[in-house]
Amino acid sequence: MSAALVEVSGLSKSFPVRRGLLQSETAELRAVDAVDLEILKGETLALVGESGSGKTTFARCLLRLLEADSGSVSIAGEDLMAMSAQRLRQQRRNFQMVFQDPYGSLNPRMRVGEALAEPLAIHEVVPRPSRAKRVGELLDLVGLPGEVAARFPHEFSGGQRQRIAIARALAPEPRFLVADEPVAALDGSVRAQILNVLSRLQEHLGLTLLLIAHDLVIVEQMADRVAILFLGRLVELAPSTALFANPLHPYTVNLLSCVPTPDPAVGLPASVASEQPSRAIEMGSGCAFYARCPVARDHCRTERPDLLEIQTGHEVACHYPGELEIGHPTRAGNGTF
To answer: What is the residue extent of each domain of the chain?
Structure first.
């Protein structure tokens, strides 16, 4: 197994909840709750969870785009949390992010060539005389002709803009790339094209990729390992094949129950959780999934389960792992959540 490029320990982030006419603080929302995670060199790790589970907050804290409350993040052996602002600016070339919205992530007043040349200048990747050539190479990497460098973002489709955003993220030649739901805002056929671009570049450039995604079909196709996040807590981590073949956490079973199958004999997918979703501001000291779990016992409400390795490479935070299986489907789903 490859060594870890990224090591996360105890990463936590909370936000105040304000209510009332005076907007006084009444509660605390724990968006990321003591997450420990390693991302191996050259792998694609998918971070999966429903909306509001803390995926994007985790990614932003990971790259120090948002300051965490506590915890540590090490990339290539260097502690990001201990870096000065100047050192962090220098090291940002090694880790970059592709954002979900291709319409909001590009400056509408900058031509494409300028947007791609900017990180080359900031990080001094190539000298000024060579930047135009490098911009053309970056556009070629993502399947766009060099002449688009003279155009503005509004002249492109969503898929083309996302290609440009990927090219910009690759400009400083990073070792680690975070893709935050990079195809969520795109149409189905365009999604496949962008995912193919990411897969090809990841293999060609030897990138380590953290893929944040809703669509489990995409995750199964692209990810080497999968991390499941629920209300800011990591509840399951496993190789992709093992997780899809044998999910151990009831929440993972719930997610996979929503994935449709092409086999008509199997029927329609079902959901195992019928209660209203839990909220991070209402969690007690026990399991985060307690209120929605069909196999929960009384002590699940008061005792937080540790993330433990149950099978080789397969970790789960559950007092009763593997008790819940994907049952007979009864309700339709679309493979996302």
So the answer is: 248-337
